[in-house]
Request: fold
Amino acid sequence: MMINLYTWATPNGRKISIMLEELGIDYAVSPVDLGKLAQFSAEFSAISPNNKIPAIVDTAAESAPLAIFESGAILTYLADQSGQFLAAHGQARYNALAWLHWQTSSLGPMFGQLGFFAVRSQEKAPLAITRFTEEADRLLTVLETQLASHSYVAGEDYSIADIACYPWVLAATTYLKTVLEDSLATKPSIQRWLQVVGDRPAVKRGMAIPKL
Ligand SMILES: N[C@@H](CCC(=O)N[C@@H](CS)C(=O)NCC(=O)O)C(=O)O
Reply:
């Protein structure tokens, strides 16, 4: 694999830099400045037709250049290529894929909407804030239940499901703190997991990408 990572300083981008750091492979970083709307450039649209980061191009793949968008697809590709952080078959593989899809279809979008209505929007719409705070809290409760009886998100092994969830759950302690701190305060298993995952050297390095 020879990976070029298209990313920006956001939770979705950092899932992939964490994975690449965990794998210890060389990769190039192409920052896509969302503030300057670089995600809509013709060059980036050809790689990522939904105009969102992250995306990768593997220039050493069998059918190179191989372009992939959507963080879940990218994490699955990197795991399958490397044979790490995702079981090859059986229950463990599909548990990890199920939690990975849970992150990209539920946790990410709901936290994203909550961030828009509760933090970024000038107008504060109470119904929208209540709706997305309650849904974010519900999702954190689901995760807390899982982590109360398992070491990691998909079971006893660290996997791409942890990598996908970590930057978003961490956001509940930073960017989304004002709306989610009460929810996190009652979730000791999530707090334990945040500490364990956050202490991994590759996670620390991946969270610092892109270097701007
Ligand atoms: N489901 C996508 C979500 C990607 C996403 O929402 N990316 C955001 C940054 S965190 C983005 O590129 N936003 C730019 C825009 O909406 O114009 C994934 O998991 O890759």
Q: What stands out?
A: The chain has two domains: 3-84, 90-200. The chain has a mean pLDDT of 98. The CA atoms of residues 108 and 168 lie 7 Å apart. The beta strands are 3-7, 27-31, 55-58, 66-69.
